[in-house]
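Anyone have tokens for Calcium voltage-gated channel auxiliary subunit alpha2delta 4? Sequence:
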Amino acid sequence: MKGLRMTIAKHTIVTILDTLGENDFVNIIAYNDYVHFIEPCFKGILVQADRDNREHFKQLVDELQAKGVGTVSKALTESFKILREFREAGQGGLCNQAIMLITDGAVEDYEAVFEKYNWPDRRVRVFTYLIGREVTFAPNVKWIACNNKGYYTQISTLADVQENVMEYLHVLSRPMVINHDHDIIWTEAYMDSALFASQAQSLLLMTTVAMPVFSKKNETRSHGILLGVVGSDVPLRELLKLAPRYKLGVHGYAFLNTNNGYILSHPDLRPLYKEGKKLKPKPNYNSVDLSEVEWEDQDEIVRLRHLGEKKFQKPPYCTGGKALQAINHLREKIKK
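Reply: yep, here.
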């Protein structure tokens, strides 16, 4: 795979990465004469598809070079092994497991690999993307997808990438339609551009609540057709109003975090930085782990031990929600 085909393949991978979110886990395997993970540090594992990891993968994909002959069977075997280990370890929600095979042709159908690792349960869906206009190997590539509960698409030009990549989402959504599941999701925190220029910092952070909309027509219900997504934007300050302040106490505070432990709202979350006279959002402001702001700062403890010194003029402050302990410590110092 070289030239335009390689460019289309890279763009396909990047587009697939853009469809993933914090609740997804991913890895990328490059295969030629041998199989290798494009990021050696992630060898044999799946990593969370957060923004940092996705951007890192995109950079590595852009650096890929074509050489040798692609050994699809070895790549499929390695992929099935990783997914099996992930499944047996009980990691993640185990909602869907899928392999995205991006190739410019398959000389065989690799039935032996699927029979060993995926049949008869077919727990892993295999989606195939045939790159280029060549149709000689199309039957094999299509057979792989159709016999593993996946979907086959052929991508001939860069303009076809976006539309064809999105097809796998419709396939994954079919069981939800048939089972009448309407999962509600909340997105990570983000900044509304309309509010950014005029409103205070507390108004900037927002989240979106969304759920899928399926076709309920009797003639199409068994097809599992996803019509779209309905959602509403919610300012985080509105959610914080639900916190009972009278129960929190003087030194208590409310915070919001996602199911992945990333902060939506916290007193110690500072999503902006100053560049000249302008305030700009930090690159990872919506992927700050709760432990980063709640973890006790040892330097603060040392500072609080010297509160009795007259040189100290600033009010006592302790990170990680430990203000009450700091005050009690100060009281004991005064008694002595």
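The CA atoms of residues 210 and 231 lie 4 Å apart.
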